[in-house]
Amino acid sequence: MKLTDKSFAEGILFTDMYQLTMAHLYFRMGLHEKTAQFDHFFRSYPDYGPHKAGYCINAGLEWLIDWMQEAHFGDREIEFLRQQTGSTGQRLFGDDFLAWLRQHGNFGGLTLRAVPEGRVVHPNVPLTAVQGPLAMAQILETPLLNMLNYPTLIATRAARISHAGRGQLMMEFGMRRGQERGVNAGARAALIGGADFTSNTGISGVLGYDPKGTHAHSLVQLFMALGEGELAAFRAYADVYPDDCLLLVDTINTLESGLPNAIIVFDELKRKGHKPIGIRLDSGDLAYLAVQSAKILNAAGYPEVSIVLSNQLDELAILQILAQIRDEAPRSGLDADHVSKRLVYGVGTSLITSAGDAALDGVYKLVAVQEPDGWVPAIKISENPAKMPNPGHKTVWRVYDERGLATADLLTLDDENPAEMNPLVLQHPVDSRISRTLAGTAVSHIEPLLTTVWQEGKLAYELPTLEQIRQRRRADIERLDSGVRRLIMPHIYHVSLSPKLWRLKQSLIENFRKS
Amino acid sequence: MKLTDKSFAEGILFTDMYQLTMAHLYFRMGLHEKTAQFDHFFRSYPDYGPHKAGYCINAGLEWLIDWMQEAHFGDREIEFLRQQTGSTGQRLFGDDFLAWLRQHGNFGGLTLRAVPEGRVVHPNVPLTAVQGPLAMAQILETPLLNMLNYPTLIATRAARISHAGRGQLMMEFGMRRGQERGVNAGARAALIGGADFTSNTGISGVLGYDPKGTHAHSLVQLFMALGEGELAAFRAYADVYPDDCLLLVDTINTLESGLPNAIIVFDELKRKGHKPIGIRLDSGDLAYLAVQSAKILNAAGYPEVSIVLSNQLDELAILQILAQIRDEAPRSGLDADHVSKRLVYGVGTSLITSAGDAALDGVYKLVAVQEPDGWVPAIKISENPAKMPNPGHKTVWRVYDERGLATADLLTLDDENPAEMNPLVLQHPVDSRISRTLAGTAVSHIEPLLTTVWQEGKLAYELPTLEQIRQRRRADIERLDSGVRRLIMPHIYHVSLSPKLWRLKQSLIENFRKS
User: Fold this and answer.
1) Domain with A220 in it
2) How much of chain A exceeds pLDDT 90, in percent?
3) Which residue from A267, A362, B60, B65 lies 20 to 30 Å from B192 (Cα-Cα)?
4) CA distance A190 to chain B (A)
């Protein structure tokens, strides 16, 4: 795509066509500037099979705000809409609507309350509440979902992979396997969720991180084609990067060629006063090869160099590798912990695509409309009660138990304050028979989750640094019960309604059924 | 991301860091301008489980070329690399290398031969052969894979979904579920592979297609919240779009509310001389609801309006829906074909993410280096013979049998011409015992697959229009054996080597083993 086309394709028309046809209809009906509230939330955790996620990490907000600040209807956008015709050749959009869009078609009238990036989040909890003129809030639906769903999916996967790796360094390597330019958002989300670095050079520069990487098989192949071989390739690498020498040892044969050659080069470096960094294994039985490599490296006097693993890693592969190392290391006379603690993980496809469940089902639903005498709740009736969005102008709280662990997220109407409810009653969102009552002593802290980030078209929030976002993720994950945090068959975290919100929902459903 | 950062993150540093550290090493060794050939190919078809793909549709080339035309090392890129330091704080990249990059760090010296977009392609066949100075060919690896892997994956999935829908209109609706800006590349690839339209407004504008879409549940919800209800929402829609009236009928209850209300509005439209377009079903048992809706619409005098299906569709869901309609339509007194032929498919998540196998495993391998006396083949030894890339400076042909159907793709060395080989011997790429001999009479046509698209830094190819690319895809799919084309358990298409290329590969392996 040419650059001029790119700015068009990624501008305000980066939305689904039906948002525009609906906005036009609202305009025609005089409803376009009516104040509405849309809630953005996801319905279920990423489901990779037996290892369904038990929590998500919220991500994407900053770049959404950046986009909202720039997006507007310029001449080219208006002209494109002017040319849109229906089945009989008549124009779809009237000139009066286009004139309104040209003048008012930006996000200046909206207010967003949102859960900050890096926070642990759960299904059916509003992560973003958008409030403002109906037409523009409607047009925002697609870009908002596009820019929040994917980062949240990837930050979540990164948190899981990092958890499996027990805090060892983890690098995002998936640029070549992701969805074109989307990999930049993926790399940022991976850093939020648990990756420590990415190989993606440009985005590292933007985010202020050092891009990471060493060399590929092609370096060794090149030297082989030139009649020189793996050792010459390693020597060349060590010559150019004597203090950053990390060698990919599996181009020919890991244990018979790559590792012995690497040790020759490491010895040469050591004699010159440099400290070798490590080796990378990118094929074969990674657990077996890690143990054998560790043994050989120890014997050669390199018990400290890193062993980087890559090739089809995800949280289960890492769990399996660590389990196998616990079994195999002692048989090779090694301490399993010592082997595990020198590992570094390079994770590609599984992370950048969230392989196994490649999309988060985030939705954006109309929940209330403002009338002169207050907010009128909106509801979508569904034959499946679990799919009925929670209606009304509302807000969200996180309740911590006496251990200081998060025990439930609570949705209330906007004028309720759970700190004043004692005992605190947590109503199941669907099943009327299920509720939970927490005595005041069982609650250590109640925290509002939504922050006003964008008010009347302006940033109303100090954007945290990526490091602060990462810190928030670590803190939130530590406050999860270990049953919720675990990778396989996690406990279900409670997302509840206040009794007042629950009664509102029920009365809307009953009123509807009677009508 | 701010726009200035975006141009940096999507410029020439849109690559993996190790490409740059390797390029620097080549520079240091005086190898950076040595001419090399890298082949881009994928190793296996997308594997969704029992319905593994039997062919792929090549896509992405035009946007890769657009990117190559713009990408270069400007001041900001050079400054960023200057700041990169290694483990002991020393700079990673020398000033002489950075000066070289500033002056020569673009793709002006490369030549690309490629399979055109829209063509059917198979594993291990070079889809792009990149030839030119080693350093820049190396830096191109990541962006090339990024910009070709994903579009090919999506064009392939679109072809399958379109095939399942038996030529009925199919629309791409997945913008909110894909990887951020990558959805634009996904929408284009979907159009190449078989989608007829996309809901993505901006990219439709860029590509010259009409964006498609009607309305969401929120329109009905809004009117309900305002105390007016579904019928009022439908009437508003019909007022604004009398000749494009397509109504989403499942917000409340499809058969009891949505459809009766739609018919009231259709009748009103008809009295005013307008022709209603159709209904959309987005939940529930789509096959059952399609049959019941068709029956009700027929009885109301609307046997021609479309029934758009959406909600979690993919090729298997569509197969199942059509099978169920074949069973259920006659029981409702309907002709199953008449029901099927009024269906339109709106496909979201499964298409834009290629759910089930969310990445194509395309790779980019050094296959030859040019020395004064000719091309020297490069090989990567692997314990798994199927993973050894086919070496050498070579090219690709497609062989058509006496029925005019594609029967094999043949890789030969560049100086071979299979038209001169009679009989034609097709050697299995791995197993020496398997070869196939085609007499001259069994071959109707042999076609070279690679075209020079980029030569010495300039476009050397008339870029086809999207419609021409779509036409090419249709023509290529028609020339596939139906066993290869089928959705479930397809036949394996043959990708073979010429005996000369096969012997070269074997001799390289043997030489290597002896050394």
Assistant:
1) 156-353
2) 93
3) A362
4) 13
DSSP string, B439-499: -GGGEEEEEE--EEEEETTEE-S-PPPHHHHHHHHHHHHHTS-HHHH-SSSPPPPEEEE-H
Contact call for residues A257 and A217 (beta carbons, < 8 A): no
Are A86 and B184 inside 8 Å of each other by CB? no
pLDDT of A130 above 90: yes
Assess whether A98 and A172 both reside in one domain: no
**Model pLDDT for residues B256-273, shown as the tens digit of each residue:** 999 999 999 999 999 999
Task: Give the DSSP per-residue string, A398-415.
Answer: EEEETTS-EEEEEEEETT
User: How sure is the predictor about A515, in pLDDT bands with cuts at 50, 70 and 90?
Assistant: low
Q: Which of residues 394-453 of A touch B (CB under 8 A)?
A: none
pLDDT in tens, A283-303: 999 999 999 999 999 999 999
Say how far apart CA A250 and CA A230 lie, in whole Å: 10
Residue A441 lies in a domain: no
Strand order across the A278-281 sheet: A197-198, A170-172, A343-347, A306-309, A278-281, A246-248
pLDDT single digits (tens) B400-459? 999 999 999 999 999 999 999 989 999 998 888 899 999 989 999 999 999 999 998 889
Mean pLDDT of B23-29: 98
Q: Which of A8, A14, A154, A181 to mutate to test the interface with B (most CBs of B within 10 A)?
A: A181
Question: A465 is written with which tokens?
Answer: 């640094």
Q: Are residues A94 and A175 in the same domain?
A: no
User: Do B240 and A24 make contact, defined as CB atoms within 8 angstroms?
Assistant: yes
Residues A24 and A88 placed together within one structural domain of the fold: yes
CA distances from B87 to A244, A326, A428, A433 (A): 6, 30, 53, 60
User: Does residue A465 fall inside a structural domain?
Assistant: no
Which of A24, A90, A218 would you mutate first to test chain B, the one with the most B CBs within 10 A? A218
For testing contact with chain B, the best of A65, A70, A180 (most B CBs within 10 A): A180
Q: Is residue B83 part of a domain?
A: no
Instruction: Check if B288 contacts A (Cβ < 8 Å).
Output: no
Of the candidates B63, B178, B240, the beta carbon closest to that of A150 is on B178
**Each residue's pLDDT tens digit, A38-89:** 999 999 999 998 789 999 999 999 999 999 999 999 999 999 999 999 999 9
Inter-helix orientation angle B182-193/A182-193, to 10°: 130
User: In terms of domains, do A95 and A207 share one?
Assistant: no
Q: What is the domain-level CATH number for residue A187?
A: 3.20.20.70
Closest CA to B106 of B133, B71, B74: B71
| DSSP for residue A196 | S
Does residue A367 lie in a domain region?
no
pLDDT 10s digits, B479-490: 999 999 999 999
Q: Which of A315, A333, A353 is the last residue in one of the domains?
A: A353
What ipTM was estimated for this complex? 0.97
CA distance A32 to A133: 6
Q: Is some CB atom of chain A closer than 8 A to the CB atom of B25?
A: yes
**Final residue in a domain of this structure, among A353, A376, A403:** A353
* Closest chain A C-alpha to B174 CA, distance in angstroms: 9
Q: Is the peptide bond before B490 cis (omega within 30 degrees of 0)?
A: no
